[in-house]
Amino acid sequence: MELVVAWIHSDASKALKVITDQISDNRKEWQLFHVLGSNSNLKALKREVKLPGSCVYYQIRLGFVIEEDQSRWLTNKEISDGVIKAIKNKNRITTIGQLEPWEKRP
Predict the structure, then answer these.
(1) Domain ranges of the chain
(2) Is the pLDDT score of 79 beyond 90?
(3) What is the pTM of this model?
């Protein structure tokens, strides 16, 4: 089964459609792990993403970390470790770090 990890910035709004069209041409089942930043409207994106029946969709949400009353963004290692864990666990929605409280984000 093919696996795609896609972390697409908001200025590439058509990229996900291009990816899904390209991969779905094979007509085999495949998995999409969609990495999203904390600023994304995560619930709306999940509803709006139009995927072919051959695609199994997983959403990975990137948050932040609070340490000693200070918040910071995730490190590259935390992100990559979290994505690998999400691929292994295959939960439909995975959050790396935390998304709440919103006012505490860096």
Answers:
(1) 2-104
(2) yes
(3) 0.86
